Amino acid sequence: MSVTLLALALLAAVVLGGGVGVVTARNVVHAALFLLLSLGGVAGVFLLLLAEFLALVQVLIYGGAVVIVLVFALMLTRSQDFAGVQDNPQWPLGLLAALVVFGVLTASFVLWKPTVQPPARVGFEEVGRELFLRWAIPFEMISLVLLLTLIGAIILAGERGGEG
Amino acid sequence: MEWAWLAPALSASAFLAIVLFGRVLPREGAWLAPLAIAGGFGVFWGVLLRWIEAGGGSHAFAFTWLQAGDVRIPWGMLLDPLSLVLMGLVTFVALLVQVYSWGYMAREPRFGWYFAAHALFAASMLTLVLADNLLLLYIAWELVGLCSYLLIGFWYERRPAAEAAKKAFITTRLGDVGMLIGILLLFRQTGTFQIQEVFAHVEAGRLSPAVVTAAALLLFTGAMGKSAQFPFHVWLPDAMEGPTPVSALIHAATMVAAGVYLVARMFPLFEASGVALLVVAGIAILTALLAAGMALVMTDVKRVLAYSTITDLALMMLALGAGSIGAAIFHLVVHGFAKALLFLGAGSVSHGTGRTDIRDLGGIASAMPLTTLTFLVGAFSLGGIPPLGGWFSKDKVLVAVGHGLGGVFLALAMVVAFLKALYMGRLLWTVFFGKATGVHAHESPPVMTGPLVILAGGALAGGVLAFPWGEAYGGFDAFLAPHKGKPFHLEVGVAAPSTVLAVGGFALTWLAYHAGRLSPEAIRRRWAWLHHLLARKYYLDDLYQWCVDHIVLAMGQAIALFDRLVVNDTGVDGTGRSVVLAGRGLRLHVTGLVYTYALGIVAGFLTVALVWWLVLGRL
Amino acid sequence: MSLLHLHLLSAALFALGLYGVLARRNAVLVLMAIELMLNAVNINLVASALFLDPSRLVGQVLVVFVITLAAAEVGLALAIILRLYRNRGTANLDEINLLRW
Question: How many domains would you assign to chain C?
Fold first, then answer.
């Protein structure tokens, strides 16, 4: 078994383990920490897939921003006051649905046999050039979306904003 | 001559005017009706004179009313001797009756409505006799039936009156259904409603004998209904619940004559089928015997007259069955005068004494001389005493029966003639002469006795019409059928026995009821079973009631049950309820919880994926 | 390491996230599960770019966009959750069912 495969197996364990923790933890803060773990694992996978820029972005944004915001939300909604089982009554159905979806996806991936090419690394410059040249317009639009989302979030979450 | 349509139009306008504007007119506008019918009478004279000037014959006037493809339905008039005779009779008698009603109904509430219905009746009846096509005739036929219903049930607050009106309408309706089928059958076979054209088809032999007979018999069922022939006769005696002038006009002189008119008008059709005429004659003689018997035991004046009317109508039908339109129509005219007279006289009696039961009345001749005299004229006329008009008409009928139908029918007709004299005599002697029963009586006002006198003149002198006068008028028969009719001539073999029977009948009853020589009580006891049968009207009413109760109403209940259970509960309510239930069930999926909706999305996605994979083969 | 392995990882993570979305009670936890799903998608995209795309770039660019949008969405969603908490006093999805039958 090659090194990469071993590394992948380890990272997969981390990612999936963290994922399991997120969806089953009883303590909400533990769930947030598990998420952080999982996302870190994903960054590792990105590294393994020779996408360094993305690994960087993943850590920065997910680890540095998203999880923080999530923890803030947990605190502001006093979620830790509601201790105990965090599952809602339809969890068996959810489990079933998830398993079925997993089955469908796996089946489709297994049955699809594309021609693969050997992996190769792309550097930061290529990614940057691609991003700012060919994908310039979507990039700008994404910025606009961010802006609008921010404004919306401020209004919604403000003292008297968003009423009515 | 085309102005003949004014006669029904005037009365129709009077009807509308009274109904619409009666509230603002003095006396509810009732006077519009007699005015209109007087106008109609004038129109009749004008039309008659013009017709004579034009040399007689048959004239038709029409304009197209509806047209659908090849089918034209015109509104038209046929002016020939038959329609003219009827037109004159209807306008004249209606006028007299309306004048009489002015006095008789003077203190009635709904005075205006009474005359409005009279006007509508006059308009419909005139349309009926003038109609040149069967569809128009049928429409007028139904309208006349409606007026009869309205007028019989004029005092609808009284239960018997309301029931009688219903009975009349339903019974005649049964006949009318047959008539409509007959009309439609003829239309189907000939493509036209025009009476003259139908005759052309018949004469050209384009209709099969079965069709001709069927059509004739079907039309006859309508005539049976209107003219109260067995088994449709049951409504006429009950119709006496209506005001007496109504009985005089509608149920003696005119409406019930419509059936006779119909057969006379469609005579070529009947002639072409020997079976039909025989059926007509058979039913007629049966009706006459039944009715004359029942007239003998009735105790209400108007009821006796009602059964007498049925008998006379049967005699008219008998004459038609024997093949003589002249005899039938002549009797129709004389009877019209005489019976109207008798009814109005009965009304005068009830107006003066407040009674109508012959057991309560007696010896009122001295108190009501004019009524008595005119009633006597009418009774003798219809009883067949010469030389009154009724003797002539009865004789014509008997002669025709003898020639056309043979000995058996003639013998039976003689029996009927005898019975007629019997019941007329009984009525006459007990009510006006005989022992006074102490009931208070006073003569009626001139507005009522005037028409009585005029009608008596007609009943008295009607016989003159049977004879030829000058070149232009060759006798009644010749008037009706210019080339086929014969003037009146006496056949002693028929006239003598009938006269003897008539005189004998009156004499017998005089002996029994006035002179006290014969005892009606003893006779009644001896023939108790017969008396009972007659008094119960041969149990026909009971039979009909049983049929209605156990067949019609039972069917109605079954259908009502079906309607309630299947149509209403299951169909209508069930549909509503199932929708509500479905709604109540379906709404449960809206839980308000987002995670259930998320599950729904996933389920939807999986379904689509499965469909894609399995059905479309994509992955 | 083959494409199939990565696809399987991606599918598993996605299924985990899906379970979380369907089965968790707290709204914030649901949001975390959504993040897991998005990450699964990202893994898939990068793997496909590496093994299937000659330029090996489009996938990565798309991942940038996905991450950006995910961040934006988290912010907005949390604003909504805060509003919800202020109105109803709870972030538990069980207790938010006013729009029921």
Answer: 1
Residue in chain B closest to A94 (alpha carbons) equals B599
A108 interaction partners in chain B (CB closer than 8 Å): 613, 619
Task: Tell me the two tokens of residue A120.
Answer: 């190769």
**pLDDT reading at B364 higher than 70:** yes
Token digits for B571? 């169909």
- DSSP 3-state helix, strand, coil percentages of chain A (rounded to 5)? 75, 0, 25
Query: Closest by alpha carbon to A127, among A46, A64, A65?
Result: A46
Quick check: A56 and A37 in contact, CB under 8 A? Answer: no
> Helix, strand, or coil here: B309?
helix
Nearest CA in chain C to B585: C101
User: Chains B, C: CB contacts under 8 A, how many?
Assistant: 32
ipTM rounded to 2 decimals: 0.91
Determine the distance in angstroms separating the CA of A94 from the nearest CA of chain B, rounded to an integer. 7
Helix (H, G, I), strand (E, B) or coil at B76: strand
B334 close to B462: Cβ distance less than 8 angstroms:
yes
Q: Say what the alpha-carbon torsion angle B394, B397, B399, B405 is, to the nearest 10 degrees.
A: -140
Q: Which residues contact B258 (CB under 8 A, 6 or more apart)?
A: B125, B128, B129, B141, B144, B223, B226, B227
Residues of chain A with pLDDT under 50: none
What would the mean pLDDT of B559-584 be, rounded to a whole number?
89
Domain range holding C83?
3-95
In three-state secondary structure terms, B442 is: coil
Find the residue in B nearest to A109 (Cα): B619
Tell me the residue length of chain B: 619
Q: Where are the beta strands (DSSP E) in B233-327?
A: none
Which of A53, A122, A145 is closest, CB to CB, to C56? A122
- The amino acid at residue B86 is L
Has this prediction a pTM greater than 0.90?
no
**CATH code of the domain covering residue C86:** 1.10.287.3510
Quick check: is C19 in a domain? yes
Assigned token pair, C14:
């996605």
Residue C100 domain-assigned? no
